[in-house]
Amino acid sequence: MPSSADLGTRLESYVTSLVKEGRYRSRSEVLREGVRLVEEREKRLSLLDAALARGAADADADRVTPAEDVRARLIAKYEKLSGPDA
């Protein structure tokens, strides 16, 4: 399904320069890569949204570790890793 895209002057100039410099073979190739990058970003944002929702649900259900406990555990871990001379 071919379509045209009005990119505006600035983006159209940028696409043209990418093709002229040999970074891409055609305008379509640049646009396909751009859409692939948007798709990838949207997938990552969707995963982040799901993780945030799980975290919020855990907090609502009181399935969390108090920050003080996490801090103490991290301090102990990194003190052990740094050795006695640190």
Characterization of this structure:
This is Putative addiction module antidote protein, CopG/Arc/MetJ family. Belongs to the ParD antitoxin family. By secondary structure, the protein is an all-alpha fold. The protein has one domain. Helices cover 73% and strands 0% of the residues. The mean pLDDT is 94.
Could you name the ranges where pLDDT drops below 50 across 5 or more consecutive residues? none
Order of SSEs = HHH
| Total number of strands | 0
Radius of gyration: 24 Å
Number of H/I helices: 3
- The dominant shape is elongated
Classify the helix fraction into a percent range: over 70%
The main sheet comes to: none
Q: How much strand content do the residues show? A: under 5%
Q: Roughly how many Å apart are the termini?
A: 64 Å
The residue-averaged pLDDT reads: 94
GO biological process, one term: regulation of DNA-templated transcription
Family: Belongs to the ParD antitoxin family.
Pfam families: ParD_antitoxin
Protein name: Putative addiction module antidote protein, CopG/Arc/MetJ family
